[in-house]
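Minimal example, chain plus zinc ion.
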Amino acid sequence: MRAMVLEQARTPLVLRDVPTPEPAAGQLLVRVNACAVCRTDLHIVDAELTEPKLPLILGHQIVGTVEEIHVSVKGQSGSDFKVGDRVGIPWLGWTDGDCVYCRSGRENLCDRAKFTGYTIDGGYAEFAVADARYCFHLPDEYEDIDVSPLLCAGLIGYRAYRKTGDAKRLGLYGFGNAAHLVTQLAIYEKKEIYAFTRPRDESGQKEARSLGAVWAGGSDETPPEKLDAAIIFASVGPLIPAALHVMAKGGIVVCGGIHMSDIPSFPYNDLWNERVITSVANLTRRDGEEFFKIAPGVPVKTKVEVFSLHDANTALDKFRAGKLYGTAVLKVS
Ligand SMILES: [Zn+2]
Ligand SMILES: [Zn+2]
């Protein structure tokens, strides 16, 4: 099969003809139809995430068709897939089910978790294998290309959003893919969105307002009201004290990214009064089940820019340079 392979960090992916993987116990073989590109893919290529398997096939927002099912999958709980079914494969690829985190409903924190497109091969290829228990059925309302970005930007965004509880005034820092999706869900749930873009990014602010944000400004600006919560999707540490500074008492700052630059120091007074800083790591299967139930009703709509598999480097380069107009999605077959 054809695959775009990362042979070494900080080098472009290489188009290779590699053996089609065979499903092992518990796994599905999936023909990849589409795979969206995530900022995490960039962090891996750029060596900001330092423990990938190498060589590696990137990609953890896989939409495909079940081609083959290992005999052991039959009757296994939570895996009612048939050959020909559409399937979504997310970042969380495997957990041990056995550690203190798994046994307390926090499989996203599993000590031995494996991640699609990072520690196991992902979807920048014609085929992928995946543990059936971690795969999702996807809502029929979406085309493959359009549902693909929901598998990470959507799910991580959803998990981050749920951590903000019943916050009425919600700030979003870094108005990219995940923020777009969260905005739609939050407005549907009658929240007020305050969008923070790069300073002087007027087109980004205009876009946020067109999506229904009640206020949009630069991350160096002060919104007209104190906020109840904020989610930081940009990988910029100084945004944490900036967000904390505009929180009301008890406000929650949620960091949605897997990698962030260092956080500068800030006065304790900005944290005082039960303000909280937290992060979101990975996802649980329950997040996925909940989100895919809610998404079509909102409806959460994605905006995509389609590339062919062999143009994956172009997609990554445009992403790194901030030159995409939607989520990059590789259309594989
Ligand atoms: Zn575990
Ligand atoms: Zn991702």
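The helical segments are 39-45, 144-147, 153-162, 177-188, 202-210, 239-245, 285-294, 312-320. The chain has two domains: 2-151+283-292+302-331, 164-279.
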